[in-house]
Each structure stands twice: as C-alpha cells, then as structure tokens.
Amino acid sequence: MDPISRRSVLAAGAAGTLVAASAVAQAASYGNPNEPPQGAVNTTGNPSSATDPGPQNPALASQFPGAFSPPATDVGSMPMFWASFNNAPRRIQDGGWARQVTQADFAIATEISGVNMRLTRGGIRELHWHQAAEWAYVTRGAVRVTTIDLAGRANVEDIGEGGLWYFPAGLPHSLQGIGEDGAEFILCFDNGMASEYNTLLINEWFTHTPPEVLGLNFGVPPETFAKIPLHDLYIFQGAMPGPLAEDQAQAAGSLGKMETSSVFALSSMAPVKKTKGGEVRIADSSNFKAATTIAAALVTVHPGGMREMHWHPNADEWQYYIAGQASMTVFNTGPKAVTQDFRPGDIGYVQKSLGHFIRNTGNTDLVFLEVFRAPQFQNVSLSQWLAHTPRAMVAQHLNIDPAVIGRFPGDAPAVVPV
Questions:
Q1: Is there a catalytic annotation at residue 370?
Q2: What is the model's pTM?
C-alpha cells in the first residue's frame, strides 16, 4: 500500500473543509426549510444554476413564474392542479360555441368537470338532459332557462351576470342567450368524467325513432315529423323568446310552476364575509335550495390580499378564475408544497382537506369561483383553529409568545389584506 503523503492529507483536509463550509452555507433556514434548501435564493453565488439555456417557450413560461422559479418553501411534487379553457378546443356553431375540460384532460379533477359556453342573442342550446347534475355561473349577458321537475311542473326563468342555475341529473332543460350580446357562462357537472358532448339530445332521439312510434307517442299523424332535422342541433341561432310572463304561463299549464327556483342571483347577495382584503359570497343548499349536490363561493381578493390559509373537509375544490391574476400554493403530506399561477379562464383544483392559500399577484381585483360536489360549503380556517386552541399548546408547537398567538384572527376572515 502506498504511504499516505502529506499532500494527500492536506488535500483531504481541504476537501473536508469545503464540504463542511458548503453544508453550513446550504443549511435549512427560516423561509427555506428544506434539506437541501430549495429555490433560486440558493444560487446567488452561482447564478447559472437557475438559468434555462435549453429549448423553451418564453411566452408560456412567463405566465407561470411560480413553476419556473418556485418559492423556497415549495418541496416535492403533486399532480398538476392547473388547467385552462384558454387552450381547450372550441366547438363553434351558428349561435355560439362551447369548450370543456374534463378529467380526461385534467387527471386530478375527479369530482367536477367544466364547460365554458357562449350563446349569441337568441342562440339556443338544444333541449337536452345529462346523467350528471348541471350547475352554472353567468359571466356575461343573460340567459333564459327552461326545465321541469319530476311532477311535470315547469320553470322558465331569466338569469343575468353573476347568477346561477342548477338542474338535477336527468331533468331536461334548455338555454337561450337573451342579453344584448347574448351570454357566456361556466357549466359544472358533478362528475369529473361528464362531457358536454355526451348529452341526451331531443333531435337525436326523434331522428332515431320510427315515425309510427313518434305518431303513436304524441297522438298525431306520423307525417307530422317528416321535416324534423336529421342531425343534432346542439347550438343553433334561434328567434328571441317572447315576454317571460307569457312563456311562464304557457309552460306551467295546469300543473303550475316548480316549488323551487332553478336560478339564484349570487353576485347580488350580501357578502357572508367582508374584510379590507376582499369578500366572499356563498351559495349552497341552505340558500339556493335547488342546488342539492353542488356548493360554491364567489371570492373577490383586493390587490395585495390573500384568500387565507384553509382547507375544505367535505369535498374537492374546483376553481374558475374570472378576473385578475393569482398564485396558489397547495400543501400535502410528505411534506409537499407546490405553487402554480392562474389567470382569467384558468381552472384550479385542490383535493379534499389539503391546505392551500391564494394570493392576488396583480394590481386589480382577483375574482374566482370555488365549486364543490357537496350540498354545503365547508371551510376550516387555519388562524381560527389556532386562535381557539389553548395558547400554551400552540406556543409549544410554534415557539411563539402566547400573547402574540392571542392576536391571531379568530373569526375565519376568509380574505386577509396586505
């Protein structure tokens, strides 16, 4: 064996010193707790560590700063919880268009699928029904909706911007744009695999039923149906409907109106929570009686504000971003913490009971929907939980003065200011 030289001993000692120094330099710290520490903050001595010289799409990457350069507190990975209607193909017809994001496109979204639809003034979404319940939010214009209940009682109702409708699974309905520029809206189905393009359409059934059966069923000569369309209409340009009261009276007939309205003016209701940071409106089965399987919150966050750290114990959360821009961080066991960015037309998804917060990263109001496959909106506030736990207990966990813990918000503020 070769004797150990003085030079090799010195070299080994120097290497050990460098390793030790590196370990000290890279030790976990407040705001960067991981081992090894994460994020671009660690690259100040070697900036090229954070660059991306390879093939890239800067226009796309610039929309996702939280993914390209995550906060130093992010760690691990989770299923992608960002999707968007902005890159979903549109089905365009004379009278409007539709595009969708289902679990087939967005693997994590098991409980809710979403559709973005536009109807022109007079544009009609063909009479149809679904195997899943349909919930909707009007982002622009106004819509006339028609449906019946299991007793055959009718609802014909108009709903404008900021309003909702709900149709239980299996109950037939139609939609028509009646605003000055028609309408645009978001549809949610209470099944992640439900597809807007897999609906039961009246024209398709008529076309594929023998004429003598149609005549027998409706008590008219088979020739009555000789000119029916031989394909589905789906979305088509129609004539504007008559006055609402006239349509309601005609549809009601001898059975009358449904006992429960199919629509709800969400944006017109008073906020259930309002702070300097923003406000929240909630519609679930407690106030929107028809909506037995879907609950929702309409959240507004002022610039610099944040939807507080919280989680939902009863259902996954499907989000639709209406205005502004946001950054959301989701926390899971592991630990795992991942940040993604959102802009209008984007969709977020947070699995049941996972902690998360949403920050307004723009200079205008952030407005988004939280939608749940549940009859009731349920929310657990982190600050409320800690404020209502004995302070000595919390202090031993966080190494914080109990008097400071006493200043934690105890009223579940929902949206906190800068």
A1: yes
A2: 0.92
